[in-house]
Design a protein that fits this description.
single chain, 170 residues, alpha/beta, six-stranded parallel beta sheet, binds S-adenosylmethionine
Length: 170
């Protein structure tokens, strides 16, 4: 199966902790194997690793990453999510079977990112959020495959329409 990684750029540890944590958790839940974050943030790493430790899966986080280098050296297609990009459905067709590095911003993204990407892809042409854009993009790219995939964690949620059913296997 093709590998998906996510690169979060413009992370400000003092302001973006929650949004970047949710970006990483959405990446994990929707099928990515790794998230890279440009600013060093040990607390963010600890929070995300805590979820992986409890709920399982093959997912890693690295912070303090040089984004230019990460984009340049990725062996696969680099996709920058932006409201100005090509339509998501057309992009997904062009990406089938490829390893993909998905780049999402925080505030304004430097023009260089648009140029360094293989594809600039929009999830609609309205401004919204990196978490929403990433979730919809990954869901389209994977055909929803990751949503209920087995992660082998010690905490296991049993789908239940009437309440909260969690098995602790530890
Ligand atoms: C809050 S937005 C920043 C928008 C900022 N004004 C700009 O022009 O880059 C944060 C990130 O969400 C993602 N994003 C927001 N709307 C999007 C859309 N319609 N399609 C794809 N990505 C989007 C982009 O990755 C963007 O860098």
């Amino acid at each position: 199966m093709p590998e998906i990684q996510v690169l979060r750029i413009g992370h400000r540890p003092d302001r973006d902790k929650r949004v970047t944590t949710h970006t990483a958790l959405a990446a994990r839940a929707l099928g990515a194997r790794r998230v890279l974050v440009d600013s060093r943030d040990p607390k963010l790493e600890e929070n995300v690793r805590g979820v992986v430790e409890r709920f399982g899966g093959d997912f890693s986080i690295e912070t303090g990453v040089q984004w230019r280098k990460a984009m340049r050296e990725f062996e696969g297609k680099v996709v920058h999510l932006t409201m100005y990009g090509m339509r998501v459905d057309e992009a997904v067709d062009a990406l089938r079977g490829e390893d993909v590095l998905v780049v999402v911003g925080a505030e304004k993204v430097p023009p260089e990112v648009y140029q360094a990407a293989d594809l600039n892809v929009s999830v609609g042409n309205q401004p919204h959020s990196e978490i929403a854009a990433l979730a919809i993009f990954l869901d389209r790219l994977t055909g929803g495959e990751a949503l209920y995939s087995e992660r082998g964690g010690r905490m296991k949620v049993v789908p239940d329409g009437r309440g909260k059913n969690v098995v602790d296997l530890s």
